[in-house]
Specification:
Structural class: alpha+beta
Mean pLDDT: 86
CATH architecture of the largest domain: 2-Layer Sandwich
Radius of gyration: 27 Å
CATH class of the largest domain: Alpha Beta
CATH topology of the largest domain: D-amino Acid Aminotransferase, Chain A, domain 1
Oligomer: single chain
Helix content: 25-40%
Number of strands: 25
Number of domains: 6
Low-confidence stretches: none
């Protein structure tokens, strides 16, 4: 059949792209195509084997036991059919009770570690030797030799530091394993201990009967998924009894005693009316789709942000395209798949605001005109949003100021109530704006927040905080790339970018300092006052829910005492402070690395001794 041949060709192409870390369609869309092929040709060879992956230049290794794929269940009916098959086989064996074990389904790169050889899944029978991953900085949770698992990035770390740089965490993982030359951002994640190999036997799990699972399904699923800080795409359910497993056996594709439970958020199909191209403060031009109104999860969706211009071009997203949108957990809607491509797809050649030519940088379109009004507006909005001590300066107010020529912080901070009135603002609003500027000068603000507010590329709050533990702000603006590169966690490319950004922003930073902002200064490493405190110089991770104040408050307090707060446990971590429902992966990793583990009360006792 022509449809079957096309389906197989498409699935092979999509699988190859996914294995290489550059997915062309979503997991759910891929799964739907697989199910369609299963309907048309259940015995097709593609369905009978593990979807292969290749790593050029890597040594091939035969697995002692096959590493197969997993059968999938999307509905309760499919899950009940799985239970029925298992219980039928168990009855024939004279088993009165069957127990199941369920774990989160990690969304990473599968591998097997026997303590000596670390290999990818490959085609299920033969994989590729990748033990060099541990030398690169991948952290084996629980230590070496725990068998099958997946290489993943800590989810909270990815969302904080990498979400704007990689389309999916798996892209970065594949890049780390496949290449000897590691991306600078990926290298930093490795240095921060945020890339893990997580054996399945180290994951949190639920165990019980089929009836217990069906009666408490939602609560059990929610509880499991809250316990892991890794990307997941469902849960894996498997039979506990080894003899029953042996009797059920496997196909050439999957084990019959195991199934993946996958569920989607609410989805709907709508039509793209048009595309608005928005210019960010760094010059990236992002497509925002205007769609026919669609109701999902209690909200009416009219606009959907596409990731970048490359996505629009590759997937044929333009006026007339029909797209499926997913809104899971009442979060921002995203494109699940393209149902019907558009013939009207043409990313802009010029900036939609300043009309200067746009250049491609990877999949992103970028406006290089630093004087572009949209970039100026976004930088100013970023300042006020980050500094957090001046209200009233929203996007509409800032647009009006930039249009009137007040396109820099220096100019805006020179304005008085009378100046605002001359610009067309009402008396009350003018008074509020003038008072907000003065308030931002007099309210204390952390020096790292002050620095991060300037929006320098590659210099967010975390790195601003780290730099200001080694340099006074007045010194930092004169730092050279080698000065920054000498510090732990700063690579050559990032250091060069930060130094260049600081140099370009130096006059503005100095001008703002001269205005008299009240800065709460970071404690410098090596200061005598800092060395007197038991937390001085210690690298600390807080995990779980705290009773004596929020985690953010405890982190701020620790920093004031000279500690360096980390988001993930690594070999450089000194202390892990555990609240309620502490992340199991962090706890296991801390034990493995010999990190000092304190309960919240023990930590507070430590503070009391200072």
């Amino acid at each position: 059949m022509e449809e079957v041949e096309k389906l197989v060709a498409d699935l092979q192409r999509y699988n190859r792209a996914y294995r290489e870390g550059r997915p062309l369609i979503s997991d759910s869309e891929y799964d739907l195509l697989v199910e369609r092929l299963r309907e048309l040709d259940p015995q097709n060879q593609f369905l009978q084997a593990v979807e292969p992956e290749t790593f050029e230049g890597k040594l091939e290794v035969r697995h002692p036991e096959p590493m197969l794929s997993t059968e999938k269940a999307y509905t309760e009916e499919q899950l009940r059919r799985f239970f029925a098959r298992v219980e039928k086989k168990a009855a024939r064996l004279g088993m009165e009770k069957v127990e199941y074990r369920m774990t989160p389904k990690l969304d990473g790169l599968a591998g097997r570690d026997d303590g000596r050889i670390f290999a990818t899944r490959g085609n299920g029978l033969v994989g590729y030797e990748i033990s060099s991953a541990f030398a690169k900085g991948v952290v084996p949770i629980g230590g070496r030799g725990h068998g099958v698992g997946e290489i993943v990035v800590v989810k909270s770390y990815f969302e904080t530091h990498l979400a704007d740089l990689f389309e999916h965490p798996r892209n970065m993982v594949v890049g780390i394993i496949a290449s000897d030359k590691i991306n600078e951002n990926a290298r930093k994640a490795l240095e921060d201990g945020a890339v893990h190999f997580v054996p399945y036997n180290q994951l949190p799990f639920w165990q019980g009967t089929a009836l217990q699972l069906l009666e408490n399904f939602r609560d059990i699923c929610k509880n499991l998924q809250e316990k892991v800080d890794y990307p997941t795409d469902g849960l894996v359910l498997e039979v506990v009894d080894q003899e029953l497993r042996r009797q059920m056996g496997a196909t050439t594709h999957h084990y019959r005693w195991q199934i993946a439970i996958k569920h989607k958020g609410e989805t709907g199909i709508t039509e793209v009316i048009g595309i608005q191209w928005q210019v960010g403060r760094t010059g990236n031009v992002t497509p925002v789709l205007e769609v026919e109104p669609l109701s999902l999860s209690g909200a009416t969706i009219r606009r959907v942000t596409a990731h970048h211009a490359g996505m629009v071009a590759k997937l044929g997203i333009g006026p007339g395209a029909k797209i499926e949108i997913i809104r899971s957990g009442e979060v921002i809607p995203k494109i699940e798949r393209v149902v019907l491509r558009s013939d009207d797809v043409e990313p802009p050649g010029n900036c939609p605001v300043c009309q200067q030519p746009l250049l491609w940088k990877g999949d992103f379109l970028r406006c290089l005109n630093s004087g572009c009004p949209a970039q100026l507006e976004q930088r100013i909005v970023h300042w006020f949003k980050t500094i957090g001590t001046a209200d009233w300066f929203g996007i509409q107010t800032v647009k009006k100021l930039v249009a009137a020529g007040y396109d820099s912080l220096e100019k805006i901070y020179s304005l008085t109530k009378e100046d605002f009135e001359k610009l067309g603002f009402g008396p009350v609003q003018s008074q509020n704006l003038a008072q907000a500027l003065q308030a931002s000068l007099s309210k204390p603000v952390e020096d790292w927040r002050f620095l991060a507010a300037f929006g320098i590329p590659d210099l967010g709050p975390g790195d601003s905080r780290r730099l200001l533990q080694h340099f006074r702000l007045e010194e930092l603006i004169h730092a050279k790339p080698e000065d920054i590169n000498a510090l732990d966690g700063f690579g050559e490319i990032t250091s060069s970018s930060i130094a260049q950004g600081l140099a370009e922003c130096r006059q503005t930073i100095q001008h703002m300092l001269n205005l008299g902002f009240v800065l709460e200064r970071s404690v410098l490493v090596g200061q005598e006052s800092k060395q007197q405190h038991p937390l001085s110089g210690k690298k600390i991770v807080f995990s779980g829910k705290m009773e004596h104040g929020s985690r953010n408050q405890m982190e701020q307090q620790a920093r004031k005492m000279g500690a360096q707060v980390q988001s993930a446990v690594s070999s450089k971590t000194d202390i892990l402070v555990c609240g309620h429902k502490v992340g199991l992966a962090k706890l296991e990793k801390a034990r493995q690395l010999g990190v000092r583990i304190l309960s919240e009360s023990e930590y507070l006792d430590l503070l009391a001794t200072a």
